[in-house]
Each structure stands twice: as C-alpha cells, then as structure tokens.
Amino acid sequence: xxxxxxxxxxxxxxxxxxxxxxxxxxxxxxxxxxxxxxxxxxxxxxxxxxxxxxxxxxxxxxxxxxxxxxxxxxxxxxxxxxxxxxxxxxxxxxxxxxxxxxxxxxxxxxxxxxxxxxxxxxxxxxxxxxxxxxxxxxxxxxxxxxxxxxxxxxxxxxxxxxxxxxxxxxxxxxxxxxxxxxxxxxxxxxxxxxxxxxxxxxxxxxxxxxxxxxxxxxxxxxxxxxxxxxxxxxxxxxxxxxxxxxxxxxxxxxxxxxxxxxxxxxxxxxxxxxxxxxxxxxxxxxxxxxxxxxxxxxxxxxxxxxxxxxxxxxxxxxxxxxxxxxxxxxxxxxxxxxxxxxxxxxxxxxxxxxxxxxxxxxxxxxxxxxxxxxxxxxxxxxxxxxxxxxxxxxxxxxxxxxxxxxxxxxxxxxxxxxxxxxxxxxxxxxxxxxxxxxxxxxxxxxxxxxxxxxxxxxxx
Length: 460
Known about the structure:
Strand 4 and strand 5 form a beta hairpin. The protein is an alpha+beta fold. Helices cover 34% and strands 22% of the residues. The strands form four sheets. Strands 1, 2, 3, 6, 7, 8, 15, 16 and 17 form a nine-stranded mixed β-sheet that branches.
C-alpha cells in the first residue's frame, strides 16, 4: 500500500497543470447563490460537477430543490467504513467590482506576499477546497483503477445564502447520504506551514431587542430628565451583560461550558501565537474578554456575548436634541460545549424584561439559534488524519477550535446522526467574501496530496 500511495502522490504532482485547468473552468462559472440573476449559472456549475464525477466513475446526479441544485455522487466497495464528503459550489457576490485587481471569474496564477496564489472568486471558499478532494480521488483511480473506498460526495449550492434547502434535503435523502463520518473541507490551516483539524465549532444565537418609551420623539429641553429615554434604558441593559472580569451575566449562561482540557492548552501554547501579531493588524493591542483566558482559548473554546449594532435617536449629520421613541440593539452569542441556545434566549429575555423601568417596553426578534459542534477526537479517524497531515506537511498537525460556525456540521449530526471531521487548507489572508480572493497554490497542491494520504489511512 505504501508504494501505491507514493505512486498516487507522483500522479498528483505530474498532473497538476491539468488539475489547475479543471479548477479554472469551474471558477469561471459565476455560481452566486445570493443573486437570482445567477440562478442559471448555479445550475451550470452543478451540471459541470455532475459530469466530472460521472467521468471519474461516481454514480452522480443533480438533485433539484426549491432553491439551488444539490450534487450527490456515490461509489461503494461494499465493505469497510463509509465517508460523506461535503463542499459547496456557490460563491459570494463580487461587488464592489472596482476593488478587484483582475477579473474575478478569470482565474490565474499570480504572486502575492512571496507566494504563488490562485486568484479568483471561489478559489478558497469553496471551489478550490472541494476540488482538492475530487482531484485526490482522480489521482487515486488513475493508479488503483478504482475509487477510494465507500464514498459519497455531497456538494451544496446554497451555503452562502443560508442553506434554505439543506434540512429538507437531508431529511428526504437520509439513506442516500448515510455514512460513518462526514469529511468537510471548508476550514483553514493554523498558519502557512501548520496543517490543522478543526475539532469544535461555536454555536450561534442572534437576538434583536427594541426598547420603546414615549409615543413619539421628544424635545430634550422640554422633556429631558422626567421622560424615559429608551437609549439610556438600552445602554444600561447592554452594560449589565458583562461583569468586570469579562464574563457574561445572563443567568445560567455557563451551563454546559466545559473546561478546556490541559492537553489542548499545552498544545496551543506551543504554536507560537503572539497577541501582538493577532491584534496589531486591526489596530488593537490589549485583549478584551475574560481576563483569565488566553486569546486562543477565548476564540476556540469560550462562549461570548457581543453587540453587533445599536441604533436610536438622530444619527444624521449635525445635531438634533431629541429623546427617541425607541432604541434597538443586535446582540449575538457564540456558544460552546452543550450550551442550550433556547434556554439562553429565554434567560436573556427574562433578564432584559426584569431591568425595564416604568414606562419602558421591550420587544424581541430572534435571528437564529444553533448549538455548538464538538468533534469526537478520540475516534481513530482523527488520529489517522492527523498522522497523514503531519507526513505530508512535515510539521505536526494540530487540533484547533473554530471561532465561527459551520451550520452544516450541526445539521449532519441532528439529521443524519453522523459526526464530522473538518480538514481545510485555506489561509487567514485568502480574502474570502472580499475582493481579490485567492487560494495559495501550495494549499491546493498539497491539499490534494493530503487527502490522498488521509484516504489511505482511513481505508487502511
């Protein structure tokens, strides 16, 4: 098997130019799911992927939904573990177009920061990433004559627009998508040379609160003092959501928050993380948040409460002495462990209502609620993948946490009953969702090689 793996890796290296041409062809299709003007292009991208998977020997087809199509390709040996690979072929819009240094849909190879990079919308998020897996399968088949094990490839076309068709599709196609483990390539590396496996994703709870007081805006000279001011009420509530140690004060908020294992703290301490290098580029110097936690711990394993927008009163040019009739705030909570977003929402609203003075009223609007995802790192597949990545990159792969959320991981667990392993090769400076998106050529090339090694370990 070792000789065969070397042969597959040699095939990857020998065919990289052909591989890039296929990626460039896919990147040229403007499959922007958030804009109905590109609906036909989303279907075109799905059809291209179906044809490519079929040419590889997958039993693949396009599955139409009320939104954008899903692509599913399957191959089976009949024995051994089964894996579900997930990626998404839709992309973010490209505006503002005048900030791009090149045509976002004409991918090429360029130099940036001393690295060769693939330029183009979707190069990193997520077409370049999903193609690392497909190309690993292509090289595998070129050497072995068969595809690697029991695989289902599932490619979504609505990830960038909230995945409205995902849950109905998972429920309707549960048997088609069944597997022992999901493989997700929509994450990044710790740094340019350190491969990583994301082992946790924070959940998300969004709340919008509106405080109302008088039945119209009031002149502050005539009513200032005796009249309830919704901005004063709102800011007092928001200020009370954290204590002096940076901890969230919502009752029961830390229920289900696990202590970070010391073994992870020790591993992260060896990563060479520098707070100045993290905060400095965004004009900051001193960590906020929980005073007794490291920056990496706060991002990867601790919950948060943040304010994402506040409005009220007169906000135009000049000055207007007005007491507003209402004030609003958008509040988001990032969740970890087994925190219950619905219990937190209930307790948060009760806390806000309990702080209202006479003549003030509150209304709420929810903006989603999803729990955190924690991966079973003690499962053999995780150590097998870490070994494979270490062998490829020549530097020990690390388990890291994810500060953001990838909802599909939670959906796989809830609807299909399967855990996910997140392996990606993006870099922090890939400018996903922004003008001038790129994907390091090394990330793409070694990403393909990494999946070859991982598939060999998982199917060994």
